[in-house]
Amino acid sequence: MIPRPALWLGLAGLLPFLWGVGTLLSPALAEVTLRSIGPRFVGPYVLIAYGTVILCFMSGVLWGFAARGEAGRWRGYALSVLPALWAFFFVGGGAVQALWALLTGFVVLLVMDMQFGQWGLTPRWWMRLRLILTAGVVACLALGLVLG
Fold it and tell me: Any stretches that span the bilayer, and where are they (predicted)?
């Protein structure tokens, strides 16, 4: 069972992604957001900015898991830095390229999560949570590509 704090805070972490999609679907919401808090929080911009932050955050989570393991520690540390490096090198070049890079990054991150789980470095509930959150993130990024 996923611990409630992890589940609820993880789901709360989807809110900026949902907000980005909401501003793409609703011109009125986009206009209010633009006027009240600025263009960085509208449409693909919020999806890209927040997606980059979360992909890098997940690198840190994997680093923490790597620190728990004795066997194959180099592999765990090496893998853990890849999401942040991916974001640094490939998120850019316009909204479409950035959204594709993030979408790809989150799918590959899920595979990495599975590997860390197979190494016994994650909690037993980790993959259930990651599947839920990754599905939400990937859906929002895909909608950002379609609607943007």
Answer: 46-67, 74-92, 129-147
What confidence tens digit (pLDDT) does each residue in 89-98 have? 999 999 999 9
User: Per residue in 50-78, pLDDT tens?
Assistant: 999 999 999 999 999 999 877 657 899 99
Residue pair 141/17 in contact (Cβ under 8 Å)? The answer is yes
SS (H, E, C) 71-121: CCHHHHHHHHHHHHHHHHHHCCCCHHHHHHHHHHHHHHHHHHHHHHHHCCC
Alpha carbons 143 and 56: distance in angstroms, whole number: 21
Burial 94-127 (b: 16+ CB within 10 A, else e): eeeebbbbbbebbeebbebbeebbebebbeeebb
User: Of the candidates 109, 96, 92, 94, which has an alpha carbon nearest to the alpha carbon of residue 141?
Assistant: 96
Q: Computed from CA positions of residues 99, 63, 128, 121, in that sequence, does the dihedral angle turn out positive or negative?
A: positive
As a whole number of angstroms, the distance between CA 136 and CA 84 comes to 20
Indicate the burial class of 5 (C-beta count within 10 angstroms; 0-12, 13-18, 19 or more): exposed
Contact between 48 and 95 under an 8 Å Cβ cutoff? The reply is yes
